[in-house]
Task: structure prediction
Amino acid sequence: MLAGEVAAYTKPAEPNNDPRSITDLTVDASGLHQTLHVLEGVAAEGKDWVRLRREQADNRLAELSRRTGGLLD
Result:
């Protein structure tokens, strides 16, 4: 198939006039959803939520260390 034949089968993309899709992409790329999740958790549970998240992170790191301990020796 030649380039001209390919062009005959394709058509230009329609412009997207929905600003929500651009906003959603921007918010996703910025990490704002994760930040909002953290802020909502802190607002709802306060210090207990922060402590729980810290414990979960520590547990994940301990598990990773346990599983990879022999790899670097």
